[in-house]
Amino acid sequence: MTQCRRCCITTSLLPLCCRIFVVGIGFFSLCFLMTSLGGQFSAKRLGDSPFTIRTEVLGGVESRGVLRKISDMLEVILKRMDSLSKLDNTSSTDAKRLDELSSAINRFQPAGLVERIQAIAQNVSNMAVRVEQILQNSMVQDGTSSQCEVPRDPRYPECPGKVDWMRARWTSDPCYAFYGVDGSDCSFLIYLSEVEWFCPPLVWRNHSSPPTQHTHQAKPTKRQAAFRTDLSVLLDQVGTGKESLSFMKRRIRRLALQWGTAANRLDAKLGQRWRDQKKILVHVGFLTEESGDVFSPKVLKGGPLGEMVQWADILTALHVLGHNLKISMSVKELQGFLGVPPGRGSCPLTGPLPFDLIYTDYHGLQQMKQHMGLSLKKHKCHIRVIDTFGTEPAYNHEEYATLHGYRTNWGYWNLNARQYMTMFPHTPDNSFMGFVSEELNETEKRIIQQNKVNNMAVVYGKEASMWKQGKEGFLEILHGYMEVHGTVYYETQRPPEVPAFVKNHGLLPQHELQQLLRKAKLFIGFGFPYEGPAPLEAIANGCIYLQPKFSPPHSSLNHEFFRGKPTSREVFSQHPYAEQYIGRPHVMTVDYNNSLEFDTAIREIMRTKVEPYLPYEYTCEGMLERVHAYIQNQDFCAPEPPFIAANLSRQGSAGGSRMTGPLFVPLPNSTALGWASNVTAPAAWPPLSSLRLLVSQEGQSCVDACQSAGFICEPAHFRFINNKEANGMKLQVQCEVVDSEINHILPAFSVMRRECGLQREPLLFSCAGHSPKYRRLCPCRDFRRGQVALCRDCL
């Protein structure tokens, strides 16, 4: 009976002992939290989350004492439990009292209290380990604590301010803890000197591993790019799940044969020339869910397709040229490809940028800024921004734009303006990326001409809203001569905006639209959308394109569509490229408000026969050639050496004597000056052999001045004419005063005041700038026939 009673009491005693033990652990855990951490909560710094427990230890000795007390208390509890478990002669009265105590503890516990206290105990245990680690580190660094004082080094003037910021805000982003920041000044200085670059390196640190931001890895072995004609890998990379992606993949498949033929042609043209294979990331920001992706739902409802056309062609060109390509369609993919540390983007990348080039758009650029932090500034020279309407230098320079009224929702990224890549060559300050249109062979062209319907017109306008207001007059005139067809989207019933005499086919798949254009004689624009791919496709299929003339021209000053865009460009017609670079007989631009002029144009169109025409720069080969030249020659990361004319030497002179004659000499049969053939030209792309130096009229931009002389403005050459030598007597410029300023119209001069101004900020070299008080000094260049992006010696 005695043994039985012992067994029963021991069995009933064990759960009670466990409960006492857990309650004890919880009690002392709370005591620990209140005593050792309470002061930190009460003096919480700005930016700390109320749910974040700081592991910073303010007093090593005091904290070690707390740990010893907790250890002693736990040891006492364990000894008491051990003595209870060894009871041999517990009376029935004692057992009854223990049962009552157990029942009271049960009533005291809310649901899950034991589990919560156990969790607290575990957290305290983990915290104790962490505190012990910090104390051990403090012992190791006992002689270096004084070296964690914030340095006052004139070479690092921002260091004290950055340390103050870290003290207040280091918990605002988990990425700081990822890099080892724990709230101590030492960890701040380590981070700010080794991960970022605001503080000097700490002498007591082990510097066998270079700091993150100053890592200089050996250059990887270069690999040669080889042309590809199989697009199956690219199609897999584009992905699925959105109608926009399906549209892009259908386009890639449809043009696959033409891309393959173009690759073989360009390969033969380049011969055995070495081409570096680049690691390229393409991040299509406007199609990410984070940017709202308003385009994908409208693909099958008449929405704009121009951007998706261009992105599909960019992806294909990069793949066909043989580069190592990664494609990102979400922010999560972007973070993974770039190596972004966990958090909110306040910290730099975990390593060197894994790509040579990054193609994105304004949405993607904003996402990269949000997630790359300071690394964006370091790596932005690798970025190329696909920008439909262009960004002028005055809008791109953040401080200048803010001070002089050019600040918009876009722009202000302080890139080299040539890093922006446009759909058409309308902004010479930017690079022209373009897209492709389907190219016809000679047999197809002949069949199209035979099957043309002379009195058939197709209207450029897929959305019913484009048919509203003011279209009735000229549509009635057109209807008097031609059968009018439309491709306006509708769901159940005919859009009321479309006149009854228009034969509406609804929204057509691309191949059916091509068949319609191959039959039609006329493709007519309503004035919107601006600068889309459809007019080029119509002209390539043998149509004459008729478009409205804008008087006054549309711009950000008078038209809502352009308001807020980072350009002051004036648009004189719906499709300026078609008007300027193609022109009659394929393109006619008239005043739609003048009924007689419109009527005359329709009759002329019906009399005119044209062949299908496609500019070379919009063929697959033309785009491959252009993109190849950019990738192999444009480098915005290497610093440009200062150009000092006096240091140049003359070719053929004894001992390479310094240059004393003019840099530029008159060109035959031209008002322009060219680089002197006997002067050694510095290395540049485009080469200086293409440079043509001109002076604009007052109030005229270099874009217009070069264009009027049959050239293209070349911003890369500004640095070679931004000097006194360029303002020589050959240009009849007499400078009594020469100033260097920050102004986007410089270099320029005033005839009246005999003042010459040179540019002090290279980012503000601008082809687009103009002023009624100044004549611009303009660096023009020649260009290849059908390929305005490249000079004659550029390939």
UniProtKB/TrEMBL annotation:
Keywords: Glycoprotein, Glycosyltransferase, Golgi apparatus, Membrane, Signal-anchor, Transferase, Transmembrane, Transmembrane helix. It is a single-pass type II membrane protein. Pathway: Protein modification; protein glycosylation. GO terms for biological process: protein N-linked glycosylation. GO terms for cellular component: Golgi membrane. Pfam families: Glyco_transf_18. It is found in: Golgi apparatus membrane. Coiled coil: none annotated. This is alpha-1,6-mannosyl-glycoprotein 6-beta-N-acetylglucosaminyltransferase. It comes from Salarias fasciatus. The lineage of its organism: Eukaryota, Metazoa, Chordata, Craniata, Vertebrata.
